[in-house]
Amino acid sequence: MAREAITGLVLAGGQGRRMGGQDKGLLTLHGQALAARALQRLAPQVGATALSANRHLADYQALGVPVWPDTLPDQPGPLAGLLTGMTHAQTPWLASVPCDCPDFPTDLVARLAAAAAAQQADLAVAVAPAPDEAGRWAPKLHPVFCMARTALRADLAAYLGQGGRRVRDWLGRHRTVEVAFDDGAAFLNVNTPEDLARRHAG
To answer: What pLDDT is recorded for position 20?
Structure first.
């Protein structure tokens, strides 16, 4: 699959509750906004990039890519951002990543695309080791690291219109392939001020 067939979307539309309400995409790591870092990492992997955001739109627009607010009210979660991306994208595929994961793999989209093509799937999502509450690492689905056919927009709109919010439940409605990645650290999110401090120190 050619990367020109894929629009890359950085999801930055959350409410940042565990960050005390701060807009996570605009927090800086080593002098660079997290959203800018994600865009920089995603751009070589796709044909075009855009950003899903609901606050501080002018700050995000300054990053030089289209900024798409949710089409649904009340910021109902990452699926709303995905729907907005599907609605605006001019390509048959959309690849999404969260703004708060600064080190996701540089071959993420290529591997998701290859798996989707091989399995004739509608969606491909990443699976990678993640620590549990006891600190043990085990495989975990990372559903916002997702590649989806934009033709699914009507189904996703219907799911959200019925009150659906869980990404996994929506994935289960379609032919979805899970793609295993070995480096779990590449998928670690910056969810709290402590997480961000550790990244600065690392």
So the answer is: 55
Give the ranges where 94-166 is alpha helix by DSSP (H): 108-119, 153-161
- What's the domain range around 35? 3-201
Binding-site residue numbers for GTP are 11-13, 24, 70, 100
Binding site residues for Mg(2+), as ranges? 100
Give dist(CA 125, CA 127) in Å, integer: 7
**Per residue in 120-146, pLDDT tens?**
999 999 999 988 777 788 899 999 999
At 196 the pLDDT is 62
Q: Is 78 within 8 Å of 70 (Cβ atoms)?
A: no
Q: pLDDT digit string (tens) for 9-64?
A: 999 966 555 545 678 889 888 889 999 999 999 999 999 999 999 999 999 999 99
The answer to whether 45 and 106 are in contact (CB under 8 A) is yes
Tokens of 51: 């950003």
d(CA 8, CA 83): 13
Which residues have CB under 8 Å from 10's CB, separation 6+? 25, 35, 38, 39, 42, 49, 50, 51, 52, 96, 97, 98, 99
Tell me the residue type at 183.
Answer: D
Number of domains in the chain: 1
Provide the annotated binding site.
11-13, 24, 70, 100
- What element of type H or E holds 11? strand 6-12
